[in-house]
Design goal:
Blueprint lengths: L7 H14 L8 E2 L1 H8 L3 H14 L2 E3 L5 E3 L4 H24 L3 H17 L4 H16 L5 H9 L1 H13 L4 H16 L3 H21 L1
Antiparallel strand pairs: 1-3, 2-3
């Protein structure tokens, strides 16, 4: 079977997108075609195609004067995203217990936490793993529309999460707290398990993201 061909435009898209998500290109940074073609060592055509894809995704914005910048993350963005997370994940976490699936999900979530622990030295990879842990929680709904809401906001979640870490959120402590949360899940102790999720990921996460 032939390997799937990846176009230069797709390669450019993936590289620029990763640079935006891992904050190599931070929020508000001005970008130009010349800079991106130089950074990627590519011609302008695939880079232009990649830029259009990222503009459609909302990660690159263009002003009236055609100046391109990486989309800013505003205080309003952070408050709205964390409100969305608390509403959807809070209810999902409760559903895990009321549906009697707390032991099953303790193992599913633990698998994601193992990946978070393995990525503790890389803020970007840790945040990707953390986001996957949150996606595991909402998967209990078995609702494609909710999954799409999360997927549509993944870029913002990953960038906001890195801001939280840079502003003082302790990765090692968070990992240890999540391990404790899993133990409470296995004991069918919803109150103590949810208290950890709420404190670390809805309260401290939001406050540190806001700076």
């Amino acid at each position: 079977m032939a390997e799937k061909h990846v176009s230069l435009a797709d390669q450019a898209y993936e590289t620029i997108r990763t640079n935006i998500l891992n904050l190599t290109y931070p929020p508000g940074m001005q970008l130009t075609e010349a800079k991106l073609t130089a950074d990627l060592n590519m011609s302008r055509n695939p880079v232009r195609t990649a830029i259009k894809m990222l503009q459609a995704e909302g990660l690159i914005v263009t002003d009236y004067y055609k100046s391109m910048t990486v989309k800013e993350i505003t205080e309003k963005d952070i408050r709205e995203i964390y409100q969305l997370r608390e509403l959807l994940e809070g209810n999902a976490f409760q559903l895990i217990f009321t549906s009697g699936r707390y032991e099953e999900y303790s193992y599913r979530i633990e698998e994601k936490i193992v990946r978070m622990c393995a990525a503790a030295g890389d803020i970007y990879q840790w945040e990707v793993a953390d986001t996957n842990m949150h996606l595991e929680i909402v998967s209990v709904y078995e609702n494609d529309r909710i999954n799409r809401i999360y997927e549509n906001n993944l870029s913002e979640l990953i960038r906001m999460g890195q801001n939280s870490v840079k502003n003082g959120m302790d990765i090692v402590k968070t990992n240890e707290n999540l391990k404790t949360m899993v133990q409470y899940m296995r004991e069918n102790n919803y109150e103590k398990a949810y208290a950890i999720l709420k404190a670390d990921h809805f309260t401290i996460g939001k406050e540190t993201a806001l700076g």
